[in-house]
What we know:
This protein is α/β, with parallel strands linked by helices. The chain has helices at residues 37-44, 67-73, 90-94, 108-121, 138-151, 168-183, 195-201, 224-232, 286-294, 316-321, 331-335, 342-347, 357-370; strands at 2-8, 11-17, 25-30, 52-54, 56-57, 60-61, 75-78, 101-102, 105-106, 156-160, 187-191, 204-209, 212-218, 250-259, 266-271, 299-306, 309-311. Strands 7-10-11-3-12-13 form a 6-stranded mixed β-sheet, with helices on both faces. Strands 15-14-16-17 form a 4-stranded antiparallel β-sheet. A 3-stranded antiparallel β-sheet has the order 2-1-4, with no helix packed on it. A hairpin with a 2-residue loop joins β12 (204-209) and β13 (212-218). α4 (108-121) crosses α5 (138-151). The relative contact order is 0.10.
Amino acid sequence: MEGIKKRFGATNALDGVDLAVSKGEVLALIGENGAGKSTLMKVLSGVHAPDEGVMTLDGQPYAPRNPLEARKAGVAMIYQELSLAPDLSIAENILIGEEPRKGPFLDWRELRRKAADALAMVGRPDLPLDTIVGGLPIAVQQLVEIARAVAIGSRVLVLDEPTSSLARADVERLFTLVRRLRDEGHAIVYISHFLEEVRALTDHYVVIRDGKTVGTGRTEGTPESEIISMMVGRDVSDLYPRSVRTVGEPILHIHDLAGKERPKKASLTLHRGEVVGIAGVVGAGRTEFLRSIFGLDPVQNGTIRIASNEDRGASVGHRWRQGVGMVSEDRKTEGLALDLSIAENLTFTKLPTLVKPQKIKEDAETWSDRMAVKRRSVDQSI
Length: 382
């Protein structure tokens, strides 16, 4: 990919990005949120056409008009949000869109054979072909999607934040699979925010910032601080300067909180002017703990005190009125109303009785500027 540019209205998403990955190589694509990583990979996988720039695959011109053309050319994208048909079987998902036929009929025997071969290639020949995908753990669903890429003969495989929902053991198994595919000659683009993963798995890296390529090199031997500096455009020592803080009175106090399944017995005290980190492995109950506090999940036992108000759980609307907010990890279904505008999303938690559109727009502009939201207008849909 050379000199790739892509604009969306007034937003310059890509401004001359260069990227190259070879057979038998794992390339890390690194950048902050909004840097242009996803847009670049959507250009590669045929979702978007570039406004400028050229792409070649095995030395030949490559310009897919849609994702199907990209897949047929051997380029497969595994998104962070997997694109499987949850009501179909493993075998059907692996060969979806590429089903073998005998005349006008599906060749089920050949379909099952090809699906079994693909599962063997990703190291999971034990998976029952007739299992419905929607009931599988996320880690296994991810393997099914990788098997689908292998089944179509992909030469370039893009993995977008593949470990974000995986437990540690599943991450190790994924790494083993990626290394095996690399050794078999696949060219792999690995997108991740976790630099320790980048260091453990990749051969080279490309850093993009504000839609431009700002750094490339071999992963081995490149200091992590150097990569971070390229990502953010300033020295690492300036990233998180410690400010003078005065810890005030307790503002949130949780005592022995228990939900339906998790948490079992969680307690926490948060003071004004304080940041508290909640750590734990996948499945420990961190998400459920926060959902219970915010009113998204029922509270079975324990108490929640916000300032001087104590309860055993409340509605989301009540929490909003108390001044509590939550940024969900499931942004698409819980965090945002995708069909509404930026302005509506920013303001609907505190709409007055008498709605003044101009005031909503002004408030949305203010907050969009403060949060550095890239946009054409606050009136555009999410």
